[in-house]
Write a structure and sequence with these properties.
Elements lengths: L1 H8 L3 H15 L7 H13 L5 H34 L6 H21 L7 H10 L4 H26 L3 H41 L1
Helix pairs in contact: 2-3, 2-4, 3-4, 3-7, 3-8, 4-6, 4-7, 5-6, 5-7
């Protein structure tokens, strides 16, 4: 790791911050980008004196929020108009209204915990825009989520230092467990809706 540290130390600090900011930003747009891994790396380098700890942390928060805002605005300005204009059968006006109802009812909590939900941060942002949740409210709740999540990961990365890979492994394991829970809940919900619709059709007959 010392070799990597020496290599990084030789790169102009501006480019290190630029790559870090771009990666964290893109993680909100492309879920496969390993933004959390770069967050851990940045914490390690901050702990070794390569990066300024406070500035680095603030940069990761701003980058995360910027990515969220971009996707939110896309959903707000173009996503809804596109589906309303085309009126697809799989996402009809009735289903759009249901999406509005559910996200307006539970959206605040979803936004608060969205950074802790791997793989669906992009979806949370675009649905918040699509359902026209107020921008300031969406930004506020997401900021809470980003500040807490980035703070936890950043602090773990700094504390563990040379054992930064343990943080990466912990995040990977956490992501697998949470993803399994989300998929399981989604499967239960789909089965419930199918059975409910089948029962209603049987009653009509």
């Amino acid at each position: 790791m010392d070799t990597v540290l020496q290599f990084i130390s030789g790169i102009p600090i501006f480019y290190i911050y630029l790559v870090l900011a771009f990666t964290i930003f893109m993680e909100n747009i492309m879920p496969l980008v390993p933004g959390d891994t770069f967050l851990v790396f940045s914490a390690y380098f901050a702990g070794r004196g390569v990066l300024n700890p406070l500035f680095t942390y603030i940069l990761t928060v701003v980058s995360s929020l910027s990515g969220f805002l971009l996707i939110y605005l896309i959903g707000f300005h173009w996503g809804r108009d596109y589906f309303e204009r085309n009126n697809y059968s799989f996402f009809s006006q009735k289903r759009i209204q249901k999406a509005d109802h559910y996200f307006n009812k539970y959206g605040d909590w979803v936004l608060i915990i969205n950074r802790f939900l791997p793989g669906i941060r992009f979806l949370v942002a675009i649905i918040a825009g699509f359902t026209r949740i107020q921008l300031l409210k969406s930004f506020f709740y997401t900021a809470i989520s980003v500040i807490v999540w980035n703070g936890i990961i950043f602090q773990l990365g700094r504390l563990l230092g040379e054992n930064w890979h343990k943080v990466v492994a912990l995040i990977s394991q956490y992501n697998r467990v949470v993803t399994l829970i989300i998929v399981s809940l989604l499967a239960i919900f789909i089965i419930y809706r199918i059975r409910r619709k089948t029962v209603k059709l049987g009653e009509i007959k």
